[in-house]
Fold this protein.
Amino acid sequence: MALNYDQALEIYEPTLGLEVHVELNTNSKMFCGCATEFGASPNTQTCPVCLGLPGSLPVVNAKAIESSIRIGLALNCSITPFSRFARKNYFYPDMPKNFQTSQYDEPICVNGYLDVTIDTDEGPKVYRVEIERVHMEEDTGKSLHVGGATGRIHGAEHSLLDYNRAGIPLVEIVTRIVPGTDKYAPEVARAYVAELRDILRSLGVSDVKMEQGSLRCDANVSIAPRGSGTLGTRSETKNVNSLRSVERAVRGEIVRQANRLQAGERIIQETRHFQEESGETRSGRSKEQAEDYRYFPEPDLLPIVADPAWVEELKAALPEKPSIRRKKLQEAWGVPDKEMAAMVNAELLDTVEETVALGAEPTKARSWWLGEVSRLANEKSVEPTSLIKPSEVAEIITLIAAGELTDKLARQVVEGVINGEGTPRSVIEKRGLKVVSDDSALMVAIEAAIAAAPDVADRVRGGNIPAAGALIGAVMKATGGQADAAKVRELLLKHLGQG
Amino acid sequence: MSTPIIHQTAAEMSADLASGSVTAVELANAHYDRIAAVDGDVHAFLHLDREGALAQAASVDASRKAGEKLHPLAGVPLALKDVLTQKGVPTTCGSKMLEGWRPPYDSTVVANLKKAGVVILGKTNMDEFAMGSSTENSAYGPTHNPWDLSRIPGGSGGGSSAALAAFEAPLAIGTDTGGSIRQPAAVTGTVGVKPTYGAVSRYGLVAFSSSLDQAGPCARTVLDTAMLHEVIAGYDAKDSTSINAPVGKMIEAAKKLDVKGMKIGVVKELSGEGYQAGVLTRFNEALDLLVAAGAEIVEVSTPSFEYALAAYYLIAPSETSSNLARFDSMRYGIRIGDDGSRSAEEVMNMTREVGFGKEVKRRIILGTYALSSGYYDAYYGSAQKVRTLIKRDYEAAFAKVDVLVSPTCPTTAFKIGEKSDDPLAMYLNDVATIPVNLAGIGGMSLPCGLAPEDGLPVGFQIMSPALKDELMYHVGGTLEAALQSKWGKPLYASAPELAVK
């Protein structure tokens, strides 16, 4: 009988460590001037340097150094006065030089931390995740294995190589073992990656899109019998493409390892690949035989010596921490924790903030973005912000507040804007969606409805208020739905002596 | 009978081009004729770019006719070591691995040469990937020393030095990682300069050992090397190790004719046992000439030089093992075994097995071992410490003297095949040149006569502190003038006539 998560946790204690790779959003690559745009045709963003042609030499991208230092500072790291690149030597067809230029024992930032808060049985609890190092490296190219059943290199008929990604600047952020997470390891892992992502986004150094691979998380998990005081053999789970997957991957790995140990098997030190559909991990590359990368200092590059005054300048110019900003916004808007969390999770906090800044009421801004707009975005499988601008949503909300639109009409305006019919104003005009609020115009329609159904009107006059529904319906029909139903009701009842 | 034009120095050719007594096209053709006549025996060239060179020459002639201001070396021919990329022109590095590869870009050295209007005749032979001291390690067959065709022309840049000595070109570019410019210059009676590390951009120089490689000028006279030095040197943003400082006045320094008040240090460790008697004779005679020209000679000791060769043969192969990893048949060069039945890894293995020669494999294996976990500190780490000690020896010496001198190599040119089965004996030939690379300073070799016992050229090495390359030209120019006035003609004029075919 296989152990479930809770059963596994009764016997074993998990240990968690995380490595996050972030693609920087610099305009050019780490060591050459090639463009870094995502999704370009294969091998169109390459040059002698990133193709590793004989004779070519790297030159460090100054912007990448600046971004790395800012990341380190935002994660409370020390910036090392002297750091270096090294060569990590191994053969692989998608690596043009057959070595990766990466920082090794002399990284640019060390010894930081990031505090994350998660909900526990005892209420919210803060975990301090210590950062061991932040270092720079270059990405490899991409291999596409054609033919064969698995899409992996074994059994493929041939392979295609795209070097557009080769040399894209990466920053790797490595934590120490996160102490005391116990059964909350999956939640802590998720909260850490989420908080890190928000920080990186606030710094503007990366697109941080997990699904596109601009933020990649490797979760290192091991388990040991409770109270044993030992560390188990760890696995390194890759291919974790969303926050939800981070949590699922850690959880799944703890359960898998526990069941293996229960069955008397040992844990193999290896990389594992997370499977989105099943939530399980699949065996990857064994790390049992420690590969010898023959690191040595990169002789083609000079050491990096960051001017302390410049580092201080960068530190002073850091944006507000996302956690502090969230707290301030929540207080200003007066929204409950749950709604705040919903905005954060939907990655719409910035958008809502912008909408509020343009005059929309916070609660309304939240509900339009997370409600109607997100629903339509889901239908089309796109980002909500790609459909409509914060300024347009703000305008619609303002019109509702002014009584010029009903919620129902507003939904039609949103639909019109998304369909490309123009600004909210022009959609209202073209579709003729203006609220009929002119009392005399409404009175004409009400009198016409009464004249058309005198018996119903009599019943209302006699005190049968629910019967007014039919007359209201007739008025709404006559005005093409553009009247405010509440207003119609009020005028009608007054006219029939029931107001 | 006047001197045939191909026997002139680059400076003389420059003057003739400027006066209109010869055109760049005529000059290029005269050299191609000479190459056709003698290179069958010498084998200095791997590839001739006649079309490109004649187009460049014609363009220089047209510019001159139009009255444009030209660089003094515009129209002067040059032989390029086959380790530097030239757009569209085959670049093999003397290796089978790169057979047929035409680089899509110019090295910075080539870009600078083209800008000055220098006419690049072709690519010269070399030890594979610049590993060797005899050019016997070329996958395309050895080059022969024009002084004695049964002997080596030095290495790795034996093609460039032989081309100069055989009057196939007045100028050449070499690269020097442990002596590959200076030792070939010494054994062919020509002049070769390894500038301060970082003075000439390495962009487009196919790397052998990145922290040691340096391209430099080669010619038959000190002044010609100075002229070429000023063309190829200078800061290059494409090479992070390039020095951002103005290029010194090398030509001016080469024209100085005395060394009054200069202190010249003779390196004690670079003479004596292992040095051929005739080499030491000619070296000491040259010292007397420098004294006569006003210099004070002092003996200097550099105790760490004893470990230079050992350190070099750890650092250079370590970097080699990594630099040469890219030759995997995936993107360029030859590919072996790709018949659809083998994996990429198998094809890589088969290609590297066939593509690399014995010496290159030896160094890759040595370097892979030296960098391996558990051995790194003992080998690569210790070698770097020795390197620091050698730098300190030089610093201490240069606190006392302006330049240091030594024989360039312990012997004159040896016979082809004599040392090809004894790598250690071969490595020992570079004992006097290697410390310069480890310290990153400048070094020059110029001819100081023929050894009495074998009648072959002897090289005199001048070493100058980093960024003070002009001092080599100053001392070298003075010594060359004194020697030529003693002999009544330059040494190269004594070279035996080659059979013309």
Observations:
- The mean pLDDT of chain A is 91.
- The longest helix of chain A spans residues 243-262.
